């Protein structure tokens, strides 16, 4: 989480500094980190020795990490849309709220 926060901040800073290529590269790294985290969470769910119905711990674990996983998936999707818009030159120095909101 810290690394993806760092890379998206770096991407935004690069964009504001008019370095679109660097911004694109950092955004791709951030998207990769989001997908990687989601894959690790799926792997953890598949290999968990307990289920949501086993105990209060199982319920709490799957509900809290499930909501966080949905948050990461939605955020990663927003960042993919931002990458497409960045590559299509839809953002400018004065008009990039979508990028800021997604990051």
Automatic annotation (TrEMBL):
GO cellular component, one term: membrane
Protein origin, superkingdom: Eukaryota
Main location: membrane
Topology within the bilayer: Multi-pass membrane protein
Keyword terms: Membrane, Mitochondrion, Translocase, Transmembrane, Transmembrane helix
Role description: Component of the cytochrome c oxidase, the last enzyme in the mitochondrial electron transport chain which drives oxidative phosphorylation. The respiratory chain contains 3 multisubunit complexes succinate dehydrogenase (complex II, CII), ubiquinol-cytochrome c oxidoreductase (cytochrome b-c1 complex, complex III, CIII) and cytochrome c oxidase (complex IV, CIV), that cooperate to transfer electrons derived from NADH and succinate to molecular oxygen, creating an electrochemical gradient over the inner membrane that drives transmembrane transport and the ATP synthase.
GO biological process: mitochondrial electron transport, cytochrome c to oxygen
Bilayer-spanning residue ranges: 27-46, 66-87
Localization in the cell: Membrane
Protein name: Cytochrome c oxidase subunit 3
Organism: Mycetomoellerius zeteki
InterPro entries per UniProt: Cyt_c/ubiquinol_Oxase_su3, Cyt_c_oxase_su3_dom, Cyt_c_oxidase-like_su3, Cyt_c_oxidase_su3-like_sf, Cyt_c_oxidase_su3_a-hlx
Residue span, Heme-copper oxidase subunit III family profile domain: 1-103
Residue ranges of coiled coil: none
Family to which the UniProt record says this protein belongs: Belongs to the cytochrome c oxidase subunit 3 family.
CDD domains, per database record: Cyt_c_Oxidase_III (cd01665)
Keyword Flavoprotein: no
GO MF: cytochrome-c oxidase activity
